[in-house]
């Protein structure tokens, strides 16, 4: 049975006028079910995670698919939280060897990916094709040749399906842009480079291609990162947490921007979990106001403007039940 989560509006609830969209959150990861490295450490607390986020105004989530199986799990989360969660379908560059490992071969794997994307986009659960792209920082997980081959194949599938792109690029900007450029003109909804950590020049080239840029804690680690974020045009900005990863840490350059940030719920070690607590080291969408606040301070604008514009950008590109 599908679950629904109501936005709090009771007399005893603090209602925020701010509304956030988390365009990159891995809610299908087992850690949100209490499972870490195959070991059950605490109760399934996914519902608590979603409710915490909704209480701070984050009411829309894009749950990331990184291979065929993970895409299916992302869709299951979207089905569990209709109206709040939406999924992406695609194969991450570090997972592209999954194509070759399929029992019936790469064509069969691609066919299953296509069928899943078609069925679930028609059902309203899938809103983007991804996470696809290139990652030359982790070639030990998938060689360059396979990454290039399956990025190109998946781009062509996205064009066929007319789904906007949810993209990944690490240390591969030249090849990434080369393969994208001729296909973007065939994708009227465009795409987003998520968890952006590239240089100022790479960001500007992405924007010039018509891409949006996703910012999370990993996009705010260094002074160079902050300067890049400062220069992202507002009309190309979207925000995310990329939980359970990419949390904002005291060692990051962004830390000085968070002195008046909203206080997060208490955090405990996973072995000490109690209902209502966050898990240390497990990032959640409840922390997205901190991302928005850092961006606002970097750009010298209000958090309200960051929320309004970034949310509108996300809905323009991905729909999220409002297109």
What is the CATH architecture term? Alpha-Beta Barrel
- Judging from the principal axes of the Cα atoms, what is the shape? globular
Mean pLDDT: 95
CATH superfamily label: Metal-dependent hydrolases
Total number of distinct structural domains: 1
Using only C-alpha atoms, the radius of gyration works out to: 19 Å
Run of helices and strands? EEEHEHEHHEHEHEHEHEEEHH
How many individual helices?
Answer: 10
Strand content: 15-25%
Instruction: Count the E strands.
Output: 12
Could you tell me the CATH topology label: TIM Barrel
Q: How would you sum up the major sheet?
A: 8 strands, parallel
Residue ranges: pLDDT <50 for 5 or more in a row? 1-16
Q: What's the end-to-end separation, in Å?
A: 26 Å
> Helicity level, as a percent range?
25-40%
Structural class: alpha/beta
CATH level 1 name: Alpha Beta
Largest beta sheet: strand ordering: 1-4-5-6-7-8-9-10
Labels describing this entry:
single chain, 323 residues, alpha/beta, TIM Barrel, eight-stranded parallel beta sheet, two-stranded antiparallel sheet, 37% helix, globular, disordered N terminus, Deoxyribonuclease tatD
Task: Give your account of this protein's structure.
With 323 residues, the protein is an alpha/beta fold. It has one domain (20-318): Metal-dependent hydrolases (TIM Barrel), CATH 3.20.20.140. It is built from ten helices and twelve strands. It has an eight-stranded parallel beta sheet with strand order 1-4-5-6-7-8-9-10. It has a two-stranded antiparallel ribbon with strand order 2-3. A two-stranded parallel ribbon has the order 11-12. Helix 8 links the parallel strand 9 and strand 10. The longest helix has 18 residues, at 144-161. The two termini are 26 Å apart.
């Amino acid at each position: 049975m599908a679950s629904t989560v109501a936005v709090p509006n009771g007399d005893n609830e603090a209602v925020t006028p701010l509304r956030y969209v988390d365009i990159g959150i891995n809610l299908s990861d087992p850690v949100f079910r209490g499972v870490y490295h195959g070991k059950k450490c605490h109760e399934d607390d996914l519902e608590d995670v979603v409710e915490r986020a909704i209480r701070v105004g984050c009411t829309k989530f894009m749950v990331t698919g990184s291979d065929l199986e993970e895409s299916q799990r992302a869709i299951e989360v979207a089905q569990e939280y209709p109206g709040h969660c939406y999924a992406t379908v695609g194969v991450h560059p570090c997972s592209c060897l999954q194509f070759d490992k399929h029992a019936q071969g790469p064509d069969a794997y691609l066919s299953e990916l296509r069928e899943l994307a078609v069925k679930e986009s028609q059902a309203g659960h899938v809103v983007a094709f991804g996470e696809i792209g290139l990652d030359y920082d982790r070639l030990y997980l998938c060689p360059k040749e396979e990454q290039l081959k399956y990025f190109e194949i998946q781009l062509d599938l996205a064009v066929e399906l007319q789904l906007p792109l949810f993209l990944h690029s690490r240390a591969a900007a030249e090849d990434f842009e080369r393969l994208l450029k001729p296909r973007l003109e065939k994708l009227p909804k465009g795409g987003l480079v998520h968890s952006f950590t590239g240089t100022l020049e790479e960001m500007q080239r992405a924007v010039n291609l018509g891409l949006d840029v996703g910012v999370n804690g990993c996009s705010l680690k260094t002074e160079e990162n902050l300067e890049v974020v400062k220069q992202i045009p507002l009309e190309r900005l979207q925000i995310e947490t990329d939980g359970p990863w990419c949390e904002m840490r005291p060692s990051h350059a962004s830390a000085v921007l968070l002195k008046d940030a909203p206080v997060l719920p208490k955090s405990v070690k996973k072995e000490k979990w109690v209902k209502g607590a966050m898990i240390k080291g497990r990032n959640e969408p409840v922390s997205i106001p901190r991302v928005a606040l850092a961006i606002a301070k970097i750009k010298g604008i209000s958090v309200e403007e960051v929320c309004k514009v970034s949310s509108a950008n996300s809905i323009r590109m991905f729909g999220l039940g409002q297109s």
